[in-house]
Specification:
Length: about 70
């Protein structure tokens, strides 16, 4: 486990909260929707929830390798 600063932990939790919130939103839209294409919203929501558990690899701390 990495030693994260307080600012890094806040960024990680905000990132997770946004992803989990979007995942729950899409998942609930897909479940409540009665049309044919609802499976897409359900899969999209599940993908958002799962990726919320992954740690972002760029632009944390002072290193930002994006050019």
């Amino acid at each position: 486990m990495q030693n994260d600063t307080r600012d890094t932990k806040i960024i990680l939790w905000v990132n997770r909260a946004i992803r989990w919130g979007l995942g729950i939103t899409f998942l609930s839209i897909g479940i409540l929707n009665k049309e044919e294409g609802r499976w897409f919203a359900i899969v999209f929501g599940i993908a958002f929830i799962i990726t919320g558990f992954f740690r972002p690899r760029r632009c944390l701390e002072e290193s930002c390798p994006i050019d």
